[in-house]
Amino acid sequence: MWYLVDVVQTAKEGGVDVIETYVFWNGHEPSVSNYYFEKRFDLVKFAKIVQQAGLYLILRIGPFVAAEWNFGGVPVWLHYVPDTVFRTDNYNFKYHMQKFMTYIVNLMKQEKLFAWQGGPIILTQVENEYGFYESFYGEGGKRYAMWAAEMAVSLNAGVPWTMCQQFDAPDIVINTCNSFYCDQFKPIFPDKPKIWTENWPGWFQTFGAPNPHRPPEDIAFSVARFFQKGGSVQNYYMYHGGTNFGRTSGGPFITTSYDYEAPIDEYGLPRLPKWAHLRELHRAIKLCEHTMLNSNPVNLSLGPSQEADVFADASGAGVAFLANTDEKNEKIVEFRNMSYHLPAWSVSILPDCKNVVFNTAKVSSQTSVVEMVPEDMRPSDKVLKALKWESFVENAGIWGNPDFVKKGFVDHINTTQDTTDYLWYTTRFVLFHRKLISNSIEL
Question: Which domain of life is it from (predicted)?
């Protein structure tokens, strides 16, 4: 995992304090009660790498995670357990979900990875964006959401549980926001912190579509506005892009590249200027950290689309965020008897309520462009001997049989049991041709 060590270090250098990861149920329980935590699924080693870097960890157990991942991370074998309905008040689904989550929480306890044990894990998550789908399940969906929250808390992880995009979450968990902007988000219960689980610095790539792009200025604006409006925790999804290897990529027409135009690209390289611009933003916010944690903001209007939020603690120290939400026009505003230039769609950060240390619309870091260039593919004999080629082989046939005969079309997953993406139909027919012979006479 040397590569992961480098990526975590690059994230830390970018001003990141916490690493967030999903837990993929289908990767860790490929068959019933058969658990796997080796190679790229070594969750314990991942957590310890984060800890060794001096960072914290948010564990999104799910166990349904979506993530444009095959089957949303739910193991396909659960599809074949009789009378099972996913993500609703269904005994079989809840039984296997609770069993898996209990296993994960107990494993983290055993390895002393929770914060109260001296480990890096400070938050855990149950379910994922279920609020969008709950109504489709009716009352069963509501009961399931409440059960999921209560079940998770009963595991006694010793850290808070979150539910993202869960619009009726009970007060035993923290409901959180996923979006491009979450500054206007408010937790259901006022005593809960304002948490942004997913801030999307780009989007996933689909076949035949242009590469999604979100400029660093807009990302920085969204983050600054979130903390300006009382935010506590903000997470980039994704901060490090990657590749969905093998057959893990799921969803309609989604490519195996999950680069997401992230601040760290899928090669592990900082994407400039995005990575560096956000690094400077993080530095500016941390200059304000103490004051912001010990006070509540006071809002001041500076114009029709301009405002200031001022934080002041008991010592008299002050922090100010000056925002211009006009998307097209820059403005000059007056704040505490001083004039400030606010570019369109920007936030200025003043750690002392006087001097601007960062403006989200002003990118000062260098820009780099990754360019693919032709390479001489004629290596030396020594290099050829060192190369090791690997290939992925899918077994032909279904369940060990080369073929089978059936009338009509079949359901893909029920037929292949997710062992392959390919289902070939062949047929044949016999065409009978009759030659008509006729005799005629002429009168």
Answer: Eukaryota
3 state DSSP class of 158: coil
Annotated catalytic residue within 198, 217, 261, 280? 198
Judge whether 197 and 236 are in contact, CB under 8 Å: no
198 labelled catalytic? yes
Query: Could you identify the residue written with the tokens 């079940």?
Result: 151
| 3-state DSSP of 161-196 | EEEECCCCCCCCCEEEEEECCCCCCCCCCCCCCCEE
Share of the chain above pLDDT 70, in %: 91
Give the bridge partners for 126, in sequence order: 62
Considering the chain, what is the average pLDDT of its residues? 91
Cα–Cα distance measured from residue 244 to residue 443, given in angstroms and rounded to the nearest whole number? 82
Alpha carbons within 13 angstroms on the beta-carbon side of residue 131 total 15
Q: pLDDT category, 415, cuts 50, 70, 90?
A: confident
For 35-62, letters b (16+ CB in 10 Å) and e give eeeeeeeebeebbbbbbebebbbbbbbb
User: Is 129 a residue of the active site?
Assistant: yes
pLDDT band (50, 70, 90) for residue 396: low
